[in-house]
Amino acid sequence: MKNARNLIIGLAITAGALYYTLHNVSLKDLATSFKTVDYIFILPGVVLMLLSFLFRALRWRILISPMKQVKARDLYSPLMVGYMANILPARAGELIRAYLLSKKHSITFSGAFASIIVERLFDIIAILLLFAWVFMFNAQVLNSDATLSGVSLQTLATRFGELSAVLVVALITFIYMMLAHKEKLMTLIQWVIRPLPAKWHDKVEYLVEEFSLGCAIARNFSALLKITLYTGLVWATIVMSYLPFYFAYDLDNKSLESLVLLTVLVSILIVVLPTPAFLGSFNAAILIGLHDIMGVAELTAVSFGMVVWAVNFGVILIGGFYFILHDHLSVKTLVQVEEDGEQIIKESESPSNTA
User: What is the pTM of this model?
Assistant: First the structure.
């Protein structure tokens, strides 16, 4: 029932976002527009997308190094399968990434998941910096008349920035307390979980201990610098991956500011509108950026969004299925992780599955 509810909600959001994107466009004209695209430029776009995953794997290797030394090439499988899993109703990719890492490399699920939390912290900070870039050098672009479900783009972007900043501060504070003042943090946690059954107390304490191991990389200044560098490279390749499609559609405005703006808008809408595989939310972000803000023809903006989404999703889907077949992974197990994550996590935390 829970899975069915998530699927219905996800499909409803997807349908609404696609209607927003397509309601002013003739499907016949849209199909014709695909024939005018110079597809030769898609190749460098794919290369940049693949480079972003290379940098993600290199960054993840450093993040898990306090728990175990793993080669970057051995992280492609959980990374790509996890990203592919975002097509599932609950967008359970991060859960599956942590599960696959824990099973394949004998790392506890809590530690693996903690490394992903730290990774996401760096990503949020990167998005906030890109967001600040837009406000600092091109604030007027967010003053357009574009609205989404009656909410203005400027209000949506501002609230997203505020909530992201609060989340960053909260995560940094929690990680700092865990690493520098663990006893005080544990006292606070014990007070919070006091009403729970006694058997949960040891479990929570164990999870916090394992989570702290996953965050231990924050003690290593040199490692933090490397993670920062790879985060910069990840987002640089994501930003620049839109540029080849600009040439494919022969858009007039090929400025860095426009590329950053598209990246920020996509980042906002795929969070605000959590659709399976980002379908609809990704397309709406591209439409707002290219048409409502930059003045590109609506048909071109819609076509652009469809092609870029298809290439992105194709790279992830092909990569995910390749590693599922290569590593002989069970699709049934991956679906079970999404449907009954709590039980799978308990199994992955059993002594036989830990290093």
Answer: 0.85
Q: How many CB atoms lie within 10 A of CB 287?
A: 26
Distances (CA, A) of 25 to 20, 38, 249, 297, 343: 10, 21, 17, 11, 46
Residues 64, 220: contact at Cβ < 8 Å? no
151: which strand partners? 148
From CA 25, how far away is CA 32, in angstroms rounded?
Answer: 12
CA nearest neighbour of 286 among 24, 32, 7, 21: 21
| pLDDT tens by residue, 226-278 | 999 999 999 999 999 999 999 999 999 898 989 999 999 999 888 888 888 88
Q: How far apart are CA 330 and CA 324, in angstroms?
A: 7
| Look-up of token digits 């194709």 | 314
Q: Got the DSSP string for 257-318? A: HHHHHHHHHHHHHHHHS--GGGTTHHHHHHHIIIIIIT---HHHHHHHHHHHHHHHHHHHHH
Query: How many whole angstroms separate alpha carbon 60 and alpha carbon 76?
Result: 10
Distance CA 55, CA 126 (A): 14
Question: Tokens 């003042």 sit at which residue?
Answer: 181
Residue in 116, 122, 37, 74 with CA at minimum distance from that of residue 302? 37
Which one, of 352, 63, 82, lies nearest residue 220 by Cα? 63
